[in-house]
Amino acid sequence: MTHALSRRALLRGAPGFVGGLSLAGLPRFAAGQATGPASGPPSGQRAAAGVPARPAIRLAGNENPYGPGPAARAAIAAATGDSWKYPIMEEMAFKAQIAEREGLSPRHVLIGDGSSEILHIAALLAATAPGEVLTATPTFDLVAVQARAAGATVRELPLDAQMRFDLPALRAAVTPQTRLIYVCNPNNPTGTMVSGAALRTFIAALPPDITVLVDEAYLELSADMATESMAPLVHGGANVIVARTFSKLHGLAGLRIGYALARPDLIERMTRLKLTSVSSLGLAAAAASYGDMEFQAASRSHIAEGVALTTAVLDELKRPYAPTRGNFVFFDTGGPAREFIGAMRGQGFSLGRPFPPYDSWCRVSMGTVEQMAAFAAALRGHFG
């Protein structure tokens, strides 16, 4: 079941508590809505005459169900009056804000229409070289799809036995034609992560003309981001692009803000390939959320609580799962994933798609803690 929010609730938020942690300022559910499948017939069943069907609980998009924090909501409200303007100065100010925290200059920062635009641009860079792209499978496939569409050769290597990017195999696969290596760390859909130390060693051993695109979309969900990020390599002039997003921890997926950290010459090349400009409301929300450490800590804590609840029931049911550093859990259903996804849809949960070659594995994104408790009950009913 997806919880509808009024515009007023989105901008204002409401107090409440989940799992003993204050949710003051986080969005509340619309009046009269419950949090689990018991509130109505499962999605896909015919509703009674005149009664709208209850939508499925959305556990498929790796979004943050708690939405923007109070500072971001206030910034959105304040920025609406100026939304007639192109946000040129606001974008420059946001670049400076990011650069200051990272110890870089604004020339090291590119703001994108979500981190997806950053990945798209990097794929285009590899295709215009021209050359080949190396990555793994399964992972977030936008880079592979865009690079192929632009005419580049893409080679996808299997994950290792721990469902992580296989760095030794990637290093062995490098050829003189290799232009870009894409590493999603933590990886989507498995949630697994190679250590920062291992990734830095891998990058240092590559030929200097190979760009490494490190997708850190989920790294902010971990408290050790400072030690695990590849951003320090940008300081040293490495041929690295670090991509980050405001769609996960910050709850701003619908406002489409992401950014890249890279050498100024790389940023200049990427800027020439930009396809869009970002919105004034998105910039205002992201800039405010970037400084709202209290909200970030609360959001991180609630997501971790949902992960802990989910993995606990998987342990109880003896279902294998990958150790996750994301806001999702990848687990073995014991049978065809499509059948399990269909069964859960019948219980009122939307879980997305399978990820070959792990055809019995399913990725569940974190909803609210209440939604994950309802999902845990559905798992017990399915496997019990």
- Low-pLDDT runs of 5+ residues are 1-52
End-to-end C-alpha gap: 23 Å
Task: Determine the structural class based on helices, strands and strand pairing.
Answer: alpha/beta
- Per CATH, what is the topology of the largest domain? Aspartate Aminotransferase, domain 2
Provide mean pLDDT, rounded: 88
Measured as a percent range, the helix fraction is 25-40%
Q: Which value, in Å, is the CA radius of gyration?
A: 21 Å
How many distinct helices? 14
As for the number of domains, it is 2
**Number of E strands:** 13
- The SSE order reads HEEEHHEHEHEHEHEHHEEHHHEHEEH
Q: For this structure, what is the CATH class of the largest domain? A: Alpha Beta
Can you give a write-up of this model?
The strands form four sheets. A seven-stranded mixed beta sheet has the order 4-10-9-8-7-5-6, sandwiched between helices. Strands 1-2 form a two-stranded antiparallel ribbon. A two-stranded parallel sheet has the order 3-12. It has helices at about 5-10, 70-80, 90-100, 115-130, 140-150, 165-175, 195-205, 225-230, 230-235, 265-270, 280-290, 295-315, 335-345, 370-384; strands spanning about 15-20, 20, 55-60, 110, 130-135, 155-160, 180-185, 210-215, 240-245, 260, 330, 350, 360-365. The protein contains 14 helices and 13 strands. It has about 375 residues and is an alpha/beta fold. The protein folds into two domains: about 15-70 and about 295-384, Aspartate Aminotransferase, domain 1; about 70-290, Type I PLP-dependent aspartate aminotransferase-like (Major domain) (Aspartate Aminotransferase, domain 2, 3-Layer(aba) Sandwich). A hairpin with a 2-residue loop joins strand 1 and strand 2. Helix 2 (about 70-80) packs antiparallel against helix 11 and helix 3 (about 90-100) runs parallel beside helix 11. About 40% of the residues lie in helices and about 15% in strands.
